[in-house]
Amino acid sequence: MKAVGIVVEYNPFHNGHLYHAAAAKAQTESDLVIAVMSGNFLQRGEPALVDKWTRTSMALENGVDLVFELPYASATSNAPAFAASAIQLLDAAQCDSYCFGSEDGSITSFIETLNRISTYQADYDDAIRSSVQKGVSYPQALNEAYSSITQPADGNPSKFVDLSLPNNILGFHYMESAAALKSTMTPATLPRLGAGYHDDVSPDTKIASATGIRKEFFTTQNTEHIRQYVPNRTFHELEHWLEQRGNFGSWERFYPQLRFQILRDGPERLARIADVKEGIENLFYKAAKQAESFQHFMSIVKSKRYTWTRIQRMLTHIYTGFTYEKRNVMQNPDHLRLLGMTPLGQAYLKEKKEEVKLPVVSRLANFESASAAFSATVSDLYALGIDPLTPSLGLDFRTPPIRL
């Protein structure tokens, strides 16, 4: 069987994701779709709307055949590290190709871009390093360095990818990672449909960004306002979640516990947390003393030096207790954590059993690693944030892979 791999968060699964899974399968002429999905905390440094098990169900009900978890250390990293681990997992799962959505929509321009940067790699890396040292944010530094080596000399439109756009950036890092890994997977891309990454929802379309969908719900507190943007099965999963838990995951909901941890640990302990540096721990401590809400907290700590996303990643690590020491022992994925499968996905695993490059883990109780153990801890902390009074703890040890 021929498999195409995709990298996802599904926060939540929406109509654009439905198109992506089906179109990726069709474009690459694959028999099934394998998704590597972030767990309960995401790349932008925030808790997922609903947990990984619920999002796995959404995926399996809407065209995905296998779901593997992207480990916490990778899922909450910057774009290069996020992409590198995701590609490693798709390659380990023996995918024949991988497909990502992009604003550009042409794989040729990505290939041209990768070749151009490879040619000027030293200059490119030096420019990024120099900008970051001057206090420029990583995305801005990346874009400035990139622009310096891709300006068309003849004034004609550039044949390279616009790396100021979020999906193009991530797509480039997927291809960069696959090249470094010397993966045999064939890259493919699809044009992003409808709304932009940060756009609000529009009543005139059924395609909306996950960011827009989340914003619409938290503004209106009404799932009917997002119904047209998600498949029916997803909508019912979201409704069931709300009936059981009363609200979706968000930093506002998690903030009381985050605030407690910041005030309890103090600057000295906070400085040991991954990504926390340059004295920002002191600002966090000061802000936690003042701010009654997450938005108020962020208004105090936000600055030109640190993007909103970068600060949120630090806060995610504070919430989960993810230190520099822990990161050092979780650099590369060491297993394929199976979250769910369709009958076709199960048949694929049986067929590829001898070829898969990493252990396929269906229950954490049967596998020992620092990454797997931390995943279980993170799931419990997520459950506590969602429902501090009656949390569902131990799910990572008790929950078998979801079978459609």
From TrEMBL:
Gene3D superfamilies for the chain: HUPs (3.40.50.620)
Localization terms from the record: Cytoplasm
This protein's record includes keyword Endoplasmic reticulum: no
Enzyme class: ligase
Enzyme Commission number(s) of this protein: 6.3.4.-
Binding of ATP, residues: 7-20, 101, 167, 192
Record key words, sorted: ATP-binding, Cytoplasm, Ligase, Nucleotide-binding, RNA-binding, tRNA processing, tRNA-binding
Chief site of localization: cytoplasm
One Pfam entry name: HIGH_NTase1
Reaction(s) this enzyme catalyzes, per UniProt: cytidine(34) in elongator tRNA(Met) + acetate + ATP = N(4)-acetylcytidine(34) in elongator tRNA(Met) + AMP + diphosphate
InterPro entries: Rossmann-like_a/b/a_fold (IPR014729), tRNA(Met)_cyd_acetate_ligase (IPR008513)
PANTHER family: TRNA(MET) CYTIDINE ACETATE LIGASE
NCBIfam families assigned to the protein according to its UniProt record, in alphabetical order: PRK13670.1
UniProt family annotation: Belongs to the TmcAL family.
Role noted for this protein: Catalyzes the formation of N(4)-acetylcytidine (ac(4)C) at the wobble position of elongator tRNA(Met), using acetate and ATP as substrates. First activates an acetate ion to form acetyladenylate (Ac-AMP) and then transfers the acetyl group to tRNA to form ac(4)C34.
UniProt-recorded name of the protein: tRNA(Met) cytidine acetate ligase
Gene this protein is translated from: tmcAL
